[in-house]
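Table S4 entry, 3-phosphoshikimate 1-carboxyvinyltransferase.
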Amino acid sequence: MDKQIQPVTRLTGEVSVPGDKSISHRAVMFGALADGVTRVTGFLPGADCLSTVDCFRKLGVQIEQHSPTELSVHGVGLDGLQEPTDVLDVGNSGTTARLMLGILAGQSFHCTVTGDASIRKRPMGRVAGPLREMGARIEGRDGGRLAPLSVRGGGLQAFRYDSPVASAQVKSGILLAGLFAEGATGVREPEPSRDHTERMLQAFGVVVEDREGYITVQGGSRLTATDIEVPGDISSAAFLLVAAAIVPGSDVTIRGVGLNPTRTGILDVLLDMGAQIEVVNERQAGGEPVADLRVRGSRLRATTVRGAIIPRLIDEVPVLAVAATQAEGVTEIRDAAELKVKESNRIATTANELRKFGAIVEELEDGLRIHGGAQLQGGAVIETHHDHRIAMSMAVAALVANGATTIRDWESVDVSFPGFAELFQNL
Ligand code: S3P
């Protein structure tokens, strides 16, 4: 479906964004493995998280959906999952694939995991490899690195893993397998990635320790059901933050945004670029810090983004590049080669699609160089490459173009932000 986006004169009002995607996935998975019933509120009813619900139902878990955002997950305990009678289809969701592989590695039954065309190109060896070292049998295309993957787990040995990438999906996959292994399993990363798994496992009563720099869980630790209140997704709020910052005269308040410090890189960078953002009403929800964010139209200046902050804003790079087109000076984003293996190659897709607006953007081996101060041109026809964050980032760019923009395959937005267009319309 094509979407036409018209430029706007300003954005004003108060909104909330949908629930955090990372936390919603984990609430379903950990609830499934727990003893007792986990009630989830603020769940993200996006396609990715619904894929997780579907897969865990196929694994024999009863999940009641009381409303789009409220679930009850009837946990089956650590040893209660059942062999599925069909293939487990994760759709577009890398998080479902990699975390679930960790859980499946601990099961003695057989199953097959697949997903859409994008998932079948994304590297699964980064999690399948260490899981094999723990004792799981995982086979698939390209020497077992690409889905569809067939898994027969069980009999796992504990493991200490030095991950070559800062990836919460890899870390979480190994730690979840560690729950089913004999002994203590630990993961060390080159830079800290998002820590929702560690926080939520603790909320479910599992001891998670730092042992000599390895985040460690003890095999056989049981999870006790709990209630999870999912905060708003800062990765979704990022589209509003950038939009309100680059459209002059805007004044937008976003309520209830999760501000886990492993996720707030986008705030740090926008503040550094001169964006007027106030953090108000700070509180805790479900073991995570939450606040309201007020953002106003601002004059932005260029910046350099590299190093340890990259994992803290990895999903926000495309929309950050949009902000950079409106900043004074040249912005560089480096150390972000991971972008090449996201839902699309986001270095290439961000550069190519922004160029259609007339922006000057250079593709680098590990990032982007964006020349700011551009008047974006109307008339662009954007290819989203079925990547939700490319679709939404280009929609934000379209707000400051001097004519209408067409975005192809708009439905990909539903992966993480159902209601995106309506929410912007209300502002
Ligand atoms: C996620 C981790 C990140 C992120 C993804 C969600 C998670 O991926 O890009 O959107 O929920 O653990 P990587 O682990 O591949 O960095």
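The pocket of shikimate-3-phosphate is lined by residues 22, 95, 167-169, 172, 193-194, 314-315, 338 (CB under 6 Å).
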